Amino acid sequence: MNLWRRLSGRSRTLALTSAGVLVAGGLVTLPVTAAQAATQCSVDYVTSDWPGGFTATVTIKNLGDPLSSWNLGFTFPNSSQKVVNGWSALWSQSGQNVTARNESYNGSLPSGATTTIGFNGAWSGSNPKPTSFTLNGTVCTGGSPTTPPPSSPPPSSPPPSSPPPSSPPPGQKVDNPYAGARGYVNPEWKAKAESVTGGSRVSNNPTAVWIDRIAAINGTPNSSSNGAMGVRDHLNAALAQGAGYIQFVIYNLPGRDCAALASNGELGPDDLPRYKSEYIDPIAAIQADPKYASLRIINIIEIDSLPNLVTNTSGNAGGTVMCDTVKANGAYVNGVGYALAKLGAIGNVYNYIDAAHHGWIGWDSNFGPTADMLKTAATASGSTVRNVTGFIVNTANYSALKEPYIKITDTVNGTTVRQSKWIDWNQYVDELSFAQAFRNKLVSIGFESNIGMLIDTSRNGWGGSARPTGPGATTSVDTYVNGGRIDRRIHAGNWCNQAGAGLGERPRATPEAGIDAYVWVKPPGESDGSSTEIPNNEGKGFDRMCDPTYTGNARNGNNLTGALPNAPISGAWFPAQFQELMANAYPPLS
Ligand code: BGC
Q1: Which atom of ligand 1 lies closest to the CA of 529?
Q2: Cα–ligand 1 centroid distance for 264 (angstroms)
Q3: Are 20 and 121 in contact, with CB atoms under 8 Å apart?
Q4: Whose CA is nearest to atom 3 of ligand 1?
Q5: What is the position in ligand 1's atom list of the atom closest to the CA of 216?
Q6: How far is the CA of 524 from the centre of ligand 1 (A)?
Q7: Which residues of 120-129 are buried (b: 16+ CB within 10 A; e: fewer)?
Q8: Which is nearest to 517 in space by CA: 109, 132, 207?
Q9: How far is ligand 1, taken at its centre, from the CA of residue 403, in Å?
Q10: Residue 251 has what pLDDT?
Q11: Deepest in the core among 118, 153, 361, 435, taking most CB within 10 A?
């Protein structure tokens, strides 16, 4: 996958009983007790209970002076009650006493502001709510002080029983599901990463779970390239981890990977009915289970599919019969539309559609038409653009996030760098500038104005000794670009197991304007494709772009592929590659 296509251009309010015992599942507004001058607060504590477990959503409102850090304290009435794992705060428990301290990103709490934190808990017998909360050691009275301190005027904000603004009611999604949330760490990938020396330095990063065939929904214990855990197993593990979000890749379109061979799938081009009923419907049924309502479930939708309909159909150099077929029969457009509609209808599910990368659709001839194709799919099969939270770029690819020593507007001796062999008239030199521009384009054609972009930074670090430390020589545009570029590939069209690549930015939310998160969707260390033909029962073919001895084709300017030797089939664990990715990580690993 990831071909280069230059040429082919979410209260009930319950009264608190005197005994402090509450009915499960309600919202509590706390009684007035002592108050200290500057700190005033109210706390809403809402739980959703099931036998033996519960999720608590705790909304803290600052009714006093502004705070730059905070810690919340409360006591469970019952000795069986335990915090299992929490989010948006650092949680600890000693006996029945629980403390939640702010995270580095949410310590600031202005007067009148609220912050919402939460945890998954365990109980037996009964699950009564705590009867008192403290904020920075002061008991929250839930109202204005009797004698307001001179420095702090009585709050003008609504009473604490009003619903917390930062915790949306059911069915209302947050703008950026990554913000303020901890990502699910796939234990299967973590184990593989830790099997390689030094792997524990990165193994606690969230990576996506690829649902790359029907059997992966329930788990495929005997597969060479997939783990034994199914979708439910991962969701249960995410709850147990206290994760805020989990990422899945929806990847099983009919006629998958139509312009390449390494990631062909199990469904033939006419299998759209099976895609809907045997693949999307069962995934949607699991993701819609109320048990998982506290998780933000993120779906990355169909890598590489829609851009192929623009750049790799007939009329384009390198067009394929399979791409023509799935364009003509609507398999990709209707499949993606169906997935968006079905999954987007779930209140805590977020869809991001794959939007290739700059070295594929960064040319004018591909940019606009690809945006239009994404819109066509987002409005197919009963879907609307409202099912789309955003888009992802650079999935499983190697394009640099930022090229610090080259700007697209640079010239060398009067010649634009766009004329260099490497850039080859592209409008972008890196993924960040491309992602931001493409976001604007998508909004301009009718996607929601709050869409956000993701950038897969799993393997675009390009550190190590080969990393340039300044611009290239100004002898020519080529010396300037080749000497200064961070992306050290032989050609930007090379996409398979690239030698010299390193881990990129570690996953994090809201890193730049318009960008929801840097993510690791391709789990580092999983192969892109085998370097020689390897028989398998997954539908995976042998693509010579994964063969280091292949001298290339029109799509990579007839260059060597730059692929690592001895690679297993796509998705299978490739320890030598993981080793190299760690060695060349940028930012470097310590
Ligand atoms: C493969 C999938 C695999 C994914 C993640 C893709 O190239 O086709 O089978 O799950 O990579 O490694």
Answers
A1: 7
A2: 10
A3: no
A4: 571
A5: 10
A6: 11
A7: bbebeeebbb
A8: 207
A9: 27
A10: 98
A11: 361
- Would you give the DSSP letter of residue 412? E
Catalytic positions are 304, 528
Ligand 1 pocket, mutate which of 570, 574, 577, 581 (most atoms under 8 A from CB): 570
Query: Would you say 197 and 203 are in contact if contact means Cβ atoms under 8 Å apart?
Result: no
CB 370 within 8 A of CB 316: no
The first and second tokens of residue 185, run together, are 């760490």
Nearest Cα to Cα of residue 55 among 143, 132, 116, 133: 116
Q: What is the pTM assigned to this prediction?
A: 0.74
Bridging pattern class, strands 114-122 and 82-87 = antiparallel
Q: Give the number of residues written for the chain.
A: 590
d(Cα 235, Cα 536) in Å, to the nearest integer?
29
CA angle 26, 129, 25 (to 5 degrees): 25
pLDDT value for 92 = 87
φ, ψ (nearest 5 deg) of residue 310:
-90, -45
Amino acid at 530: S
- Decide: 304 in ligand 1 pocket, CB within 6 A: no
pLDDT score recorded for residue 519 = 98
Choose which residue among 2, 212, 257 to substitute to test ligand 1 binding: the one with the highest number of ligand atoms within 8 A of its C-beta.
Answer: 212
Measure Cα distances from 116 to 72, 133, 174, 334 in Å: 12, 14, 13, 38
Ligand 1 midpoint to CA 31 (Å): 54
The C-alpha angle 154, 160, 163, rounded to 5 degrees, equals 135
Amino acid 68 reads S
Beta bridge partners of 354: 392
Any alpha helices (H) in 300-409, and if so which ranges? 305-311, 321-328, 331-344, 358-361, 364-378
Report the distance separating Cα 326 and Cα 254, nearest Å: 8
Q: Which tokens is 14 given?
A: 């319950």
Could you check whether the bond before residue 587 is cis, i.e. omega within 30 degrees of 0? yes
CA–CA gap between residue 401 and residue 523 (Å, rounded): 17
For 151-204, what is each residue's pLDDT tens digit?
443 334 433 343 333 445 555 799 999 999 999 999 999 999 999 999 999 999
* Ligand 1 site, residue 497, Cβ cutoff 6 A: no
For atom 9 of ligand 1, the residue with the nearest CA is 571
Q: How confident is the model at residue 157, as a pLDDT?
A: 40
Evaluate: CB of 128 within 6 angstroms of ligand 1.
no
Element (H, E) at 484: helix 477-484
546 CA from centroid of ligand 1 (Å): 14
Cα 495 to chain centroid, rounded:
21
Low-confidence ranges of the chain (pLDDT < 50): 2, 4-36, 144-167
**328: phi then psi, degrees, rounded to nearest 5:** -65, -40
Write out pLDDT tens, residues 540-549.
999 999 999 9
The amino acid at 107: G
Token pair belonging to 358: 């700059």
The angle, 0 to 180 degrees and rounded to 10, between the axes of the packed helices 364-378 and 431-444 is 50
Residue 573 Cβ inside 6 Å of ligand 1? The answer reads no
User: Distance from the CA of 459 to the center of ligand 1, in angstroms?
Assistant: 14
The answer to whether the CB of 278 falls within 8 A of the CB of 217 is: no
Distance CA 102, CA 100 (A): 7
- Asked if residue 73 has its Cβ within 6 Å of ligand 1, the reply is no
